[in-house]
Amino acid sequence: LYQGLAQSYNLSTAKLGLEVGVPNVLKTLERLGVERKWPAYPSMLLGAGALTPMEVAGMYQTLANGGFNTPLRCIRSVLTADGEPLGRYPFQIQQRFDPGAIYLVQNAMQRTMREGTGRSVYSQLPSSLNLAGKTGTSNDSRDSWFAGFSQDLLSVVWLGRDDNGPTPLTGATGALQVWTGFMRKADPLPLDMPMPDNVTQAWVDRQTGLGSASGCPNAVQMPYIRGSEPAAGSACGIQAPVDSVMDWVRGWLE
Asked: How confident is the model at residue 237 (pLDDT cuts 50, 70, 90)?
């Protein structure tokens, strides 16, 4: 799944969405802060629902805040000419997601920047600057999106035409380049993600998803919600017991 997210392979995302159910995906969007009512069509899994950059920023802010939702505010207060308050819009915050689940998403988005469609940022930004983000491209390349964040700054870029016509841009070749230029000047702090208590690390084979061990071919260390991690694999280079090998040979011959 993390490879599908990092490389923007829509098939893995669509399959996961169908398994958990489109209505549940839409409920998750609501918890992220999206205040829209959409029909539960499978096409919603591939971004059929239109959002503004402000709405996307609200969603990603919940991810960046460790699962705490904070409604975006353009106005903090309204004052009279004498400085007396006429109205205030207080800061609001609500925890909507388990920190462990958010940690897994942040980790996958960070790998997107290191290994996937966002890796070009490090041609202009220092490799020590940990970032998390995701590219987005709509059908016929009408929209080029990138949303990402550091420890102290979140920004969203959308590129498209007023007439909704196609562009020659993808999320990586368009919006990501603008985002990178902005972040280079903003001088953000590197993303620091403390691992929650309900998360553990496990070595897995990146091709099979089965348990592996450090130093084995294709081994990668991944975070899991504690209790859901695969069983540890055998250390590489350790020979299997002779009895086990002979049992395997007998079973193959019989």
From this structure: low
Cβ neighbours of residue 77 closer than 8 Å, sequence gap 6 or more: 85, 86, 87, 88, 89
pLDDT band at residue 249 under the 50/70/90 scheme: very low
Specify the pLDDT at position 190: 97
Find the CATH number of the domain harbouring 26. Answer: 3.40.710.10
- 110 and 27 in a single domain? The answer is yes
Report strand pairing: 219-225 vs 199-205: antiparallel
Buried b (16+ CB within 10 A) or exposed e, 70-107: eeeeeeeeeeeeeeeeeeeeeeeeeebbebbebbbbbb
Residue 221's beta-bridge partner residues? 203
Do residues 143 and 233 share a domain? Answer: no
Q: What is residue 17's DSSP assignment?
A: H
Residue among 194, 193, 190 at smallest CA distance from 126: 190
CA angle 80, 86, 91 (to 5 degrees): 120
- Under a CB-based contact definition with an 8 Å cutoff, are residues 159 and 167 in contact? yes
* One-letter amino acid for residue 125 of the chain: L
Q: Where are the beta strands (DSSP E) in 131-243?
A: 132-137, 143-149, 154-160, 199-205, 219-225
Listed range (11-15, 74-78, 108-112) with the worst mean pLDDT: 74-78
Does 208 lie in the same domain as 164? no
Question: What residues contact residue 155 under an 8 Å CB cut-off, 6+ apart?
Answer: 57, 147, 148, 149, 179, 182, 183, 186
